[in-house]
Write the structure tokens for this entry.
Amino acid sequence: MKMNNVNLGEIISQLVAEKGWSKAEFARKIGQKRQNVDASVFKKKSLDTDLVCVISRVLDCNLFDYFKPSNANHYAALKATLKIEMGEQQQDKTFTFLFGDNKVEIK
């Protein structure tokens, strides 16, 4: 599945800039040559999973989170779907679902 709205290279470039690191410093931290980091990371829309793991560790953030749907949109869609599937006879009941640490109640 393609995630066309996520440009991982741009995100990484912004995170590196926020940390105040030079491209050379970042390249050294991820085990790449300075000359290659632009083409192999910053200008790429998608990256190899192993490289994303290394960069996530170096930046101390989970880059895979950028591929998750926003919780608000995801849970709103889930609520709407479950309300439709429950039908009118269940409208007076409350259902609670747990998704990891997230609790969703549907009335």
Notes: The radius of gyration is 20 Å.
